[in-house]
Design a protein that fits this description.
Blueprint: E1 6-13, H1 16-26, E2 30-37, E3 40-49, E4 58-63, E5 76-84, H2 89-98, E6 104-108, E7 111-117, E8 123-128, E9 150-157, H3 161-171, E10 175-179, E11 183-187, E12 195-199, E13 212-220, H4 223-235, E14 244-245, E15 249-255, E16 261-269, H5 294-300
Amino acid sequence: MKTKGIHHISAIVGHPQENVDFYEGILGLRLVKKTVNFDDPKTYHLYFGTDAGTPGSIITFFPWPGARQGRIGTGQVGVTGYAVPVGAYDFWKERLESFDIEVHEEERFGERYLTFEDVHGLKLEIVEREKGDSNPFQHEAIPLEYAIKGFAGAVLYSSDIEATDKVLTEELGLAKRAEDETYFRYEAEGEMGNIVDIKKEVNARGLMGAGTVHHIAWRAQDDAEQMMFSNQLRADGYHVTDIKDRNYFNAIYFREHGEILFEIATDSPGFAHDEPYETMGESLMLPAQYEPHRAQIEANLIPIHTSKK
């Protein structure tokens, strides 16, 4: 079994409008879906990605105003990485600094990274990559030749590096590509979200809260491939959930032995099946079981609007 790479990454944040202002307003991603947490409809579930919300570009958020701040550490995705076209590095450094965002620069496996935090403390980085299609989402302040293309990958903070190495290589089919003093590097066969690093030393144990990643999801082409992953994982002793219908994909979950929560999500049906592609993200979309309660749900949610800066 071989995944093509990351499908999406889901995180916990604070106020939803601050979340929209940062990811759409500053980073130039599209709010492709405004819905609710299917397990807790009193809060939003917001999806941001490329123009069509392509797998490998989707970051999702559970925004809880007033949520306690989490701590990034072992058992979590430590850093979420975005890929930009070659030649876009300086544009992004200047843009982030223009919003008074503290930016650091580092090199890893011969690549230059801009590292920074979002408004709620989530750790992010930007790196130039040749692979991947350009993002056609039009943002008035970001030329298309500089727009974020999707995920570059992620840095995993494992409590058991050997166990996480095993699940990446033996269960998900990533190839171990490189090692330096600080990281191990793995690569999947897809073009976006295909590079994953494990950091060798992480001091703190992660605590869930605002500014932390809840889970990382890996791509399955369809339901049949997802079932093959599930059967293989169960046979190898992992506890895998039943299939969860998330409306825009089907999902299964398991916690690998480095304590990071993994999901395997199907590429289909995608985000345009319940509203027109042209207006995705503008209206609150609810799954069928919550539609009869729309008025009550909307009354409990903080109004938000899209933001381009």
